[in-house]
Amino acid sequence: MILEGALTVFSAQGFRGATIDQVAEAAGLSKPNVLYYFASKEDIYRSLLTGLLDMWLDPMRMIDPNGEPLAEIQRYVAAKLQMSRDYPRESRLFANEVLQGAPLLNEILGGQLRDMVDDKAGIFNGWIEAGRLAKVDPRHLIFSIWALTQHYADFETQVRAILGEEHDPYAEAQQFLSTLYDRLLAPDRG
Model's pTM, two decimal places? Predict the structure, then answer.
């Protein structure tokens, strides 16, 4: 309840513009009730961002090292795109934090996130060395997936303005991204 209210406020106002009073109002609680559970605005924000990052990483955790490489990566791309569609406020909030230098997430980004990316990059390298995936830099592959899927949430207004109301940007993006990654990652058979 508090974190949902906090998401509404922080995604609209940013950390600097948000107040505990606004969070309490959005959560339907009094300020003292909010402060009973969280000691400060920073505690609320950090808890919200940590939860969002954990949710964002769930699809990456599901990559199966024993699976078929293209299918595993396509499943990850589809999950990330679906999350952008279902959680645009969360995506924008996280992007804004990173754009501001990630002052509250730097330790997590350089620790837990880096460790997970290194782990998945190792899996991708194994697939590349086995000839099951085209030779690409695994970390930059992951960055490209993040950029190409989260763009649809972070710049949704721009995407919809350009495509027009008659288009479903997410369905079209899924088809485009599927083709892109199939062609990019198919192992060279020649």
Answer: 0.88
Q: How far apart are CA 51 and CA 48, in angstroms?
A: 5
Question: Is 90 in the same domain as 180?
Answer: yes
Which regions in the chain score pLDDT beneath 50?
Answer: none
Angstrom distance (rounded) from CA 31 to CA 92:
26
CA-wise closest residue to 45 among 29, 68, 23 = 23
Burial tier of 159 (Cβ tally within 10 Å: 0-12, 13-18, 19+): middle
Classify residue 39 as exposed, middle or buried by CB count within 10 Å of its CB (0-12, 13-18, 19+). Answer: exposed
**Cβ atoms of residues 138 and 121 within 8 Å:** yes
Shared-domain flag, residues 150 and 60: yes
Are both 21 and 100 inside the same structural domain?
Answer: no
